[in-house]
Amino acid sequence: MEDILNAVRSGADPREAVEKTLSLPREDQERLIEETGRIRSENAGRFLTALYLSVADKKLQKSIKKALFRLKTLGIRVEEPRIEGESVLRKAETVRQAMAFMSNYDAEQTKVVVSAFEIKKNQYAFSHAIIHFSDGLMELRSFPVPRKELEGLLADYLSRLRPPVVLPPVSAPYAGYIVEEASGISRTESEEARSLNHYLSEAEGDVRRPQDIYSLEVDAAVDAEPMDRILTDEIFEPFALEWPGIEEDRKELDQAVNPGLVLPPHVMQERRGAFVRELIENKRLAPIMPSFRRMLEDYAYLFYCLKDFGSYKGLVERLKDPEAMRRGFMYFAAKALEKLEKKEDQLQQEQRQSSLIIDPYSPKR
User: Fold this and answer.
1) Residue 129 belongs to what H/E stretch?
2) Rounded to whole angstroms, what are the CA distances from 163 to 134, 166, 183?
3) Is-above-0.85 flag for pTM?
4) Which of 94, 176, 186, 363 could disulfide-link 200, Cβ–Cβ 3.0 to 4.6 Å?
């Protein structure tokens, strides 16, 4: 069995590994699937997908699906096998119970929306959506889960999260709305997203549309947090704004603040601010402004669900102020350019260090 795992780790053609797996006893196949699910690489996903399409045993297929799902929760991109047949969502009856969870964005500008709702007695439909900040829905997968396994599945999912990623419970109808909204942006999975939204909309929830976020109840004694404190909260930490031409903009910024002369720090800061303002005013970043506003609305709701009512209140107030929105957008644009600058500086430093290393075996000059 170890030779199969080594082949998977190396990225070898999965077909040979699949053939060897099929010749193993059932017990060893189960153990192999479990071990493969612990290999944190896309190679593991490719092997499991190929194996899934080659086995007929329903229990083995179920184990493979769990292993693939585990890889996805670790942030590894996998292509889940598509099985022909009717969607689990279209088999649903009246929704009795529903739950949903939403994350903040990660460094890849993606977030997850997880939901589960009862489709018949003791049977749930579990859905997992990956949504990109500006490109919309990247992936939507749904599969049936027995009630007795649902709690363990959710606990396993939540246990894999690491700060600053958060995944609090949110209104199920709003989760459905978000997935269909993202599907409209990407123009993918339209029917599946529409079905999910339809069923989740039947559940109870205080938030169903973005406009509902603005009127959630908060104690009048709670003070609104200032915008600079809100934007530096850890849930914003992984997110980095991106746009077409950002690398060219980074080079132009470098020329503006480092023109070959030694400038005082305050002059460099003024030039940096002027450059970012021009980026926004010349409409280059205008296409992503709606996505930015929707992100802040969702983050206001995340703050509320995390019981950080001061940040919720402060962000909702700023969302109503166009100038505050512009300053917030400038903050993230400047942060994105600064991140690229640091990456470029680090690369240049590494190149300088490598040039200083003397190879004792090289010919003397």
Assistant:
1) strand 123-132
2) 23, 7, 28
3) no
4) 176
